[in-house]
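Sample A.
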Amino acid sequence: MSSKWAFAGLLLIAFIWGSTFAIAKEVLTVFGPLQYISLRFGITALAALVLWGRSLRHTQRKTVWHGIGLGILLGIGFLTQTVGLAWTTASKSAFITGLSVPLVPLFGSLLGWTRLHRGNLIGTGTALVGFFLLCYPTGGFSDINSGDVVSLACTVAFALHILGTERSVSGSNVAALNVVQLFVCAIFLGLAWGVLFSAHLAGWPLPTAFAREVVIVSVPLKTGIQFCFLALITLLCYRIQTAAQRQVSATSAALIFSLEPVFATALAFLMLHETLGWRAGIGGALTVAAVFISELHPAVALPAKEPAPPTNQRFTT
């Protein structure tokens, strides 16, 4: 995949996530959020196994370990985002999640994985301002609660997942890496839902926000079709991401992903005739500009340090 196709692929992912928001919202009227992501990633993992299971036969051990690490980060990200959303507003959750954009270059630099250029820093700052205007909650953060704190964990997990993907795809079988990370994520989320359901069966009182998670629901045909569509779209998006991040830096990938709310807002304006305020308009424009500013001087991923080969020294007496 060339760098241009990789850039286009990541743009497609941001568009897909933004455009499927309305479908996911409708599915969530039937399922509890944790139920939803557990089953969604379960179906996604099974589909990945059917399509690319053969790639696991000759997979290197490092690819498996990388996939396990990425799957755990992905699971932590979705779990903390879902739990945090139960105790905070959607607008606050969206804004906190978007903070992963500046965290990617920050963590990459601190870990010695990325060499940043001025364009990356300007682009990241511009994206943060744009995201602030686009998603900052009207009520602000004067009433910070436990949901906001939990949501911060998802921000860290998603930032590390983007960085980890950049480090893992080099020299790895992308298909095998995808299968492992999706299966580990599905198991992680399934265990989390299982713990919640077991607590309910044991008679432990659950927070009101999680009451729907332990209800066995009857799924209408339309919702089932939508659910399977979202699961397969998830498979497509992570397959593209792992391939594209061979050519696009983690910093650039994070900036491109920040376009998700821009696409969601634009589609809501065009298709649902929702009102687009001045803040959303300026914020969206700044976020788009940030991607191109950053791409003028893309970040450079530093190669992983390889252990020094042993030297054969001869000693003479």
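Sample B.
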Amino acid sequence: MGGGNDLVDSNVVSNEDSGIESSYVGFVDSDDVIAKDYFRNLIYTLEINKVQISKSSDIEIFDTNNYNSKAFYLEQKKTKGKIHIIKKNNITKLEVWRCVFEYNLIKNLKFHKLLAEDIVFNFCAHALARKIAINKNARYFYRQRNGSIMKAGSNGNTKGSTMESFREIFYFLRDNNLLQTFDLPTAFIRPKLEYTSKKDEDFLEMKKNLKDLNIPKYIVQNNKILNAAFSANSAKEFIAKTSSLKEKFKQYFQFRISKKQNIVKFFGKVIYSNKRL
């Protein structure tokens, strides 16, 4: 996977294919580090709460060029954690690398060869589980590297990939009769404004791909993003129909000072802009 998860490939997660001989499965990016008691504490939380997923909320980001390795030997007391019920629209923070899964829950799920394959996988697992337990005493050390996506942000080269992720989740929800239970993750087709394509050809291609899915009409009618995608005739119209109040405000008023850029915008007009190298 993109971050270096080496436990399974893009096929079905199974004992036979992956060599797994355990009741539980956990993922760790190959360049990250976990505390000595990380899995012990997550499995304890999973078992005592009788759930199929336990998730760590104890994440420490460290710079690959400046860290103290002694921190990795941290040990904390086992805690029961807190139950979190998965609701219609709250499948969020879906990093697969900070979870432990009961094997039977995910044995038929796949890692597809596409952008954000771990998010697609984890969305499906959470939808099946319906509830999870969150542990605050299982430390996961996330390595931040120069040039990483987390540090640099998206470069915008995601055309088509996000649509594929949306398609896989739609098929999963449809095939498991969950379309009425969970909202479709429309952030894949309408991300933040800065990552949304302003090109009509990209919008029209997305619109065609959505039509090809034959999404039930009642789903489209009750979903603002999908409704806008089907009714709009241009990228500009689609963006106008789906912009949040924050995005609309930012189009007219902006005052930003950072290491990379200074910008002042008033009533939609940029009165000062200075990008730094």
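B remarks: Residues 124 and 172 are 7 Å apart (CA to CA). The chain has three domains: 15-152, 161-243, 246-277.
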